[in-house]
Amino acid sequence: MQLDPRRERLLKQTFLDYQQTAEFLKNPLILERAQGLYYWDVEGKEYFDAIGGIFVAVLGHGHPRILDAMRKQMEIMSFAPPLHGVANVTLDFVERLASVTPGTLDYIKPFSGGSESLEAALKFVRQYFKQSGHPGKYKFISRYYGYHGGTFGAMSASGTGKRKTPFEPQMAGFLKVFPPTYYRDRFDSWEACNRFCARMFEDVILLEDPETVAGIIVEPIGNTGGIITPTDEYFQILRQICDHHNVILIFDEIITGFARTGNMFAAQTFGVTPDIICGGKGLSSGAIPLGAMMARADMADAFYGALEDDVHFAHGHTFAGNPLACAVGLAVLDEIEESGLAHKAQELGDYLAGKLEQLKRYGVIREVRGKGMLRGVELVKDTGSMAPFPALGYALKRAALKNGLIMRIDPSWFAVAPALIAEKSDIDELYDRIDRSLADALEEVG
Question: For the segment 18-36, what is each residue's pLDDT rounded down to a tens digit?
């Protein structure tokens, strides 16, 4: 893409997420419009959106049901005063979201996105323990490679290394263990590795003192580690540990939620119900910022009392529960359920995984992993040594854009999560573009 002087100047007046501007200017991408499964840039070039924007557009771009819901709500009310009342449509959204959550996770607080939802959960859990007889519980255990958001608490819970370094020191009270992929080559089986890694959480709890540990935070499928997909047993062990030590189990489902993994939530896919789910991204299909914290109903009791008790949740945001966003969330949930998109994600996801397995013929694919319509492919130099091959990842990113393909590419892996409106023919097209891009990348790196 050729930049005119104005666009180049404006790019230097802002910043791009986790990218160096000088490097971006070498191969810029400025998008003009989107529809369904595609983007078009300002020069009219088409791109297949293999990642739903960034794990967001579960219904694709410009879905008519979402646009209709936005138009109707804008004509009624687009903002309600949060310090004085709540919009009626927000209550409708709370009721609707609570109807699809697992277990008793029907205490709902809407927010403007995933980071806000995770940040709220951290504060909610700390305040909950202060008001329920365990004031010393404040620490959270999460995983290296995990990403939980860009705000300070969510960033401290994340295990993303250099992404956090510029903002050190981090907040106190956040501890890390390793994900199962880190130890996989030291065990005879993936199952044994997962058991060991799940038990590490309990080791930390015991050594830190259970009366100081408030919560465990995990992504059911870890994105920034390369679509890390633990076993069902891994989560069963976490559930048992949390129950035994009075620790709150938090699932960060900002990416995995809302039909992506073959169920409304990955908690249902893995068969384990946490105490809190944090959602975002797909909840509005990218049409407007929206997220939500979903907590066990009985936890809310600690925040209910007389005025003099002062036990309300001491937290809020200007746009939390925004009526326009909640109207969109209602439309998304209705469309997912009425169109059976969770079941479709399971079937189409199996087809997608089968296509991606064909890439192993190149000899640079270690593993295809994930659930439903969230899949990751690990890149290696060769399947004998299994050595990392970051040069291939960088080349693949360049080749993908050249071939009109937008997907999440890390130097050591790539991920795809196309919208649930896709059909098998779309998956075939997606695979063809990936196949062509990988071949081009391998030619570039020799």
Answer: 889 998 998 899 999 999 9
Q: Tell me what pLDDT residue 19 has.
A: 87
Q: Domains, the chain, ranges and CATH?
A: 5-62+342-445 (3.90.1150.10), 77-338 (3.40.640.10)
Helix (H) or strand (E) holding 108: strand 107-111
Are 64 and 321 a contacting pair, CB within 8 Å?
no
CB 216 within 8 A of CB 144: no
Judged against a pLDDT cut of 90, whether residue 2 lies above it is answered with no
**CB–CB of 405/418 below 8 Å?**
no
Which amino acid is residue 424, in one-letter code?
K
Q: What is the maximum span of the chain, computed from C-alpha positions, in angstroms?
A: 72
**In 3-state terms, what secondary structure has residue 80?**
coil
Three-state DSSP class for residue 100: coil
User: Is the peptide bond between 169 and the residue preceding it cis, with omega within 30 degrees of 0?
Assistant: yes
Q: What are 261's strand-pairing partners?
A: none
* Strand order from edge to edge, sheet including 408-410: 365-371, 374-379, 413-416, 408-410
Distance CA 163, CA 323 (A): 33
Q: Are 246 and 239 in contact (CB under 8 A)?
A: no
**AA identity, residue 68:** D
Residues in the chain: 446
Residue whose structure tokens are 């104005």: 6
Averaged over 140-158, what is the pLDDT? 95
The encoded tokens of residue 244 equal 């035994």
Exposed/middle/buried for 93, CB within 10 Å: 0-12, 13-18, 19+?
Answer: buried
Residues facing 35 on adjacent strands: 38
Distance from C-alpha of 339 to C-alpha of 266, rounded to nearest angstrom:
19
CA distance 330 to 37: 22
Would you state the pLDDT for residue 136?
Answer: 98
**One-character DSSP codes across 330-352:** HHHHHHHHHTTHHHHHHHHHHHH
Nearest residue to 218 (alpha-carbon basis) of 186, 250, 190, 245: 250
Tens of pLDDT, residues 252-311 = 999 999 999 999 999 999 999 999 999 999 999 999 999 999 999 999 999 998 888 888
Alpha carbons 51 and 37: distance in angstroms, whole number: 9
Q: Is 381 helix (H, G, I), strand (E, B) or coil?
A: coil
